[in-house]
Amino acid sequence: MIKLHNIEKFYETGAGKSSVLRQISFNIKEGEFVTIMGPSAAGKTTLLNILGMLDSAWSGEYYFIDHPIHELRPKERMALNKRYIGFVFQNFNLLDSLTVYENLDAPLSYRNVKSSERSSIVCDTLDRFHIVAKKNLYPSQLAGGQQQLVAIARAVIANPKLILADEPTGNLHSRQGEEIMQLFKRLNKEGTTIIQVTHSEKYASYGHRIIKLSDGWLDGEITPDELSD
C-alpha cells in the first residue's frame, strides 16, 4: 500500500538547513497495523503528515496504492486523502464552526455519500462512541477527551482504507484508551490499514510491528514482543 524511498524534510533557518527527516525508506502492506515510536522531535508527526498528504514540502519518492504521490499536484493528493484516509490529529483539528454532528457528517460529504444515508451513519457513530448527547455542541464546548473521541469518530466514520493516528489516546482516560485501541484492532482485522504514533508501549503492542525514529533517522524496527525485552 505504501512505499517510501529516501524521504527527506528540512526547514531553512538563519543558521542554514535544519533536517527533520533523513533518508526514510520503508514499505507498509495493506492490512498492517504499524506503530511509529521515538523521542520528542524525532520527526514522527512530520512523517505522519507526509503519509497523510498534508505536507508537500519534502523530497524523495512516495507511492500510495501505486499512485506516485511525489509526482502529483496538491489537488490530486487531496483527492486521494479524502477518498482513502482517515486522520486522527494530536490537536483534534475539529471544525470550530460546526457542531459535533456536522463534524462527523463532513467526511461523508467529501466521499459523496447520499444525504439519505449520511444521517443514519452519523447517528450510528454517535451511539457507537457514546456521544449522542454532544451532537449539537460545538468543539469549544467539549472537554479535551470528548474532542478526542469526536476526532476519532470522524476519522473512522467513512470506513477509510488507511487510518493515521497521532497519539490517538493522549487525551483519554485509560478505559476510553482501551476502547479506542480495541476499535482499531477490530477495524484492522476487517482490513483497514492503521499507522499510529504513540509513546505508550502498552498501546504500541496492539500493532504488528514498530518503526523507530531518532533525530529524523530510522532507528530500526522491532516487534511488540521485543518492547518488554
Overview of the structural elements:
The protein has a single domain (2-227), classed as P-loop containing nucleotide triphosphate hydrolases (Rossmann fold, 3-Layer(aba) Sandwich), CATH 3.40.50. The mean pLDDT is 94. Strand 9 (209-214) and strand 10 form a beta hairpin. It has helices spanning 44-51, 74-84, 100-110, 115-128, 144-156, 174-189, 201-204, 224-227, and strands at residues 2-13, 16-28, 33-37, 59-64, 67-68, 85-88, 162-166, 193-197, 209-214, 217-222. Helix content is 35%, strand content 28%. It has a six-stranded mixed beta sheet, with helices on both faces. It has a four-stranded antiparallel beta sheet with strand order 2-1-4-5, covered by helices on one side. It has eight helices and ten strands. Helix 3 crosses helix 4 (115-128). The protein has 229 residues and is α/β, with parallel strands linked by helices.
